[in-house]
Every structure is written in C-alpha cells, then in structure tokens.
Amino acid sequence: MRISTAMMYQQNMRGVTNSQSEWLRYGEQMSTGKRVTKPSDDPIAASQAVVLSQAQAQNSQYALARTFATQKVSLEENVLGQVTTAIQSAQEKIVYANNGTLSDDDRASLATDLEGIRNQIMNLANSTDGNGRYIFAGYKTEAAPFSGTAGNVTYKGGDTPVSQSVDAARTMTIGHTGTQIFNSITSNAVPEPGNGTSETNLFNMLDSAVKTLRTPTEGLDDAGKADLTAAIDKTSRGLKNSLNNVLTVRAELGTQLSELDKLDELGNDRALGQAQQMSDLVDVDWNSAISSYVMQQAALQASYKAFSDMQGMSLFQLNK
What is the reported pTM? Predict the structure, then answer.
C-alpha cells in the first residue's frame, strides 16, 4: 500500500478532529449537567426519557387538579358548616314555638326570626366562588340555582354533580347540586305519621313554619290549634331530616379532603421517583465525566503535538 504525504496529513487531521469532538462533548456534559442532550447521545435513554417526561407532565396535571378540587371541596364544606348552624338555630326556634303558652305576638316574633334564618340559608344556597360561579348549581354555574316565592322555592341548577379526575384511577365529586343538599333527605329519615309524605325542600319547611306561626290562635277551636301544632311538628321532623342530610354530605366532603391529602403525598412520592429515574437516564455522572474530560484533553494535546510534528516532515525526509 502506498502512503502519501496527503494521506498522513488527513489521518492526523482526523485524529485531531475526533479528539476535539470528544473533548467538546464531555465539556458540554459538564456545562449542562446532562449526559444525554440529543437522541444520538443515547437513543434508548432518550426514548425512555420522552415517555418518563410525559408521565411527569401527567403527574403535575393531577397535582394541579387536586389543588383545584381541594379548594372547591373546602369551600363547599365551609358553606355547609354555616348551613348546619342555621338549621340548628331554626330547630331551637321550632322547639320554642311548641310552647303552648306563647301569645300571638310571641309566635309572630318567632316567625320573623325563622324568616331571617330562611333567607340566610337561601343566600348560602346561592353562594358563589371567587370567580362568581354558583357552587350548588352543578354544571349550570352561571345562574343562581334557587329562586321563587315563599312556599314555592324551586331549583333551577344542573342535575349532575361536578366531578374532577384527581389521579389516574380516581374521580370524585367536588360540587354537589342544590337538590342533593337542600331538597333531599337520607334513607333513614324520620317518617311522617300515618305514612304521610315527608317534606324534602328545606325552604318550604321553613316557609310553612313561618306561615303557621303568623296564623293567630286566638278564637281557634281545639281542632284548629291541633292543626297548627301538627304543622310545627312536621317542620320539626323535616328540619331534623334535612340536618342529617347536610351532615351526611359534610362527612363525605371531609373524607374527600382526607383522601386528597393522601393523594398529594402519593403524587409527591411519585414525582420524586420520576425525578430520580430521569436523573439516572439523562444526568451526567460527574466522576466519569470529569475523568473522561481530562483524559480526552490529554489525548487532544497529544494529537495536536503529533500533527505539529507531522507538518515538519515529508516522505522525502524519511527516505534520506
């Protein structure tokens, strides 16, 4: 095989170029902290990193969804806490209203108190979040869910509770409808005597009690007074059933808040594991990178020296 001066020059030049390329590659790893900066550095690790980054993005999205869900559930629980207090206040008024020694003025005063409680609960039922969306309207959040006159309050919100995916295999209700809260009773509710129909609408219960208490008792016969007492007793049973229903929903909300905390912990642990996996795939091994950088730097300097020495030589000189 014939060796020319040009061939020797090209071989030495390739050696310098290759050494310089490797030296720069290790330098880039050290400057970026990444072993894999492009797919050609490690095709298998790069493809696994793409899949892992998608999993990280999904985990971050679920973390954001849990933050939103926690805010919604906490807000609803807070409002229902106020509803609970209001219903309990109404129960106290109803118990006092059963006192047979009350005058018509006393009864009218109680009716005014109950009307105020009823209006308070109505305002709570039409509560909005920080963005002006009604929290008890299901998915129809743009309009107040409850409206109507005394004794005829109706629900106009959505029929489907608001749900949210909070993890890969978990979807939970984060917004109950007004019907579930203010127009429902539990399966173990106190029944009406003689298989009568139980009142489920909280507002109609209170409106009925207000109307009854504003009805004068003076001049009524025993049957008329008994009817008024029966109406108050029905409201008392209705309020107990309604309170139990609200407390059942609040218990559900408390369980969900606890579950969201646990899912957050799981998500954080998952994020740490994914970050470690990503580091193992693409991050630089500093000991190896520094060692390789120094070694490649020495190799590059040797290539420079060999190339420099070669420039002063030719085949004519070697044949002397």
Answer: 0.78
